[in-house]
């Protein structure tokens, strides 16, 4: 939970960090939900992402534009928060073994892929996102990059503990694990996402594909 | 080369397979190029992909709509051919070793990624393609799926020859090689595409990431 101050009488935390992203710290959850519902309604009604303006959202939600701008600096940040409210949350790594943490991290990618397939909203927004560079950049910066750094840290830990070869580039090693999962969840819409996919990818990459003696 | 009959006096091969895709068998290369140039001009002029109609292309190229429909059943097929004319051609596998062929196949993905970064046209069309399901489906069916089958055949050959473990799913093994390449070329626009990337991915996946003794 990032909503630390939801009460009506509480000071709006957004006031304390004017100019920053202010993500997830609305004065009132009810207002935020009404704003999200309005944006979702517009998208479901067929309005292209690029034409869903703050003005249209405010009008549909029955709030003033200032109410929206108090929460988000622009519509890209609003959409990114909307996506995060629908997507599964980021995983917490148990920290027992590097292999175990890798499986948890890859499993979170698989689950997000399933969520995207099952949510018409997520599917709609992601399919339009590549043609909307500013939203893609914001989503990348706020959501994807922190997840990627989590993976890089894990690979470094594995190298330090002797669970992963340390003669390869950290970024490359991370991509060997995440690439197959992202290929099936992001690029190939019809690919199977079996329950044990994360585990099978992690073990195959760790053990290698040369025949065993 | 799929253009077997380009001469003005030759029988139009398209007439021989009415109703089929007729890809790459125009009566005249000059007319085809004029049609491609018209489509490119419209896209470069800022017309969204979904609004580039056969009618607009015909008018811009100075040809009749029938001239276009004689070559392609619809605009999706036209766009797919246009993309193929700009993208690097599919690789020919030397067939010496499975490892060598895997490197050639992965290198072809890297080269297509570089081409996409260096071509404003490819970048433009691919960024709009996800929001245009019919074009995405056609491109997938005509271009991506045959390439994927090439990879699956190669993995099966590796298993039969004892160069690749045969206790894993063929599709999974193929995704372990292609996933990291597609992650960097399709999903993460800023990723590095070093000249030896294909080789490093193939060898790391074959050898595995467990520390060597």
TrEMBL record, chains A, B:
Binding region for DNA: 53-72
Start and end residues of each HTH tetR-type domain: 29-90
Example of a GO MF term: DNA-binding transcription factor activity
Gene3D superfamilies assigned: Homeodomain-like, Tetracycline Repressor, domain 2
SUPFAM superfamilies (UniProt xref): Homeodomain-like, Tetracyclin repressor-like, C-terminal domain
Source species, domain of life: Bacteria
InterPro entries linked to this entry: Homeodomain-like_sf (IPR009057), HTH-type_TetR-like_transc_reg (IPR050109), HTH_TetR (IPR001647), Tet_transcr_reg_TetR-rel_C_sf (IPR036271), TetR_C (IPR011075)
A Pfam family of this chain: TetR_C_11
Location of the region described as Disordered in the Swiss-Prot/TrEMBL record: 1-28
PANTHER family: HTH-TYPE TRANSCRIPTIONAL REGULATOR RUTR, TETR-FAMILY TRANSCRIPTIONAL REGULATOR
Protein name, as recorded: TetR family transcriptional regulator
UniProt organism field: Streptomyces showdoensis
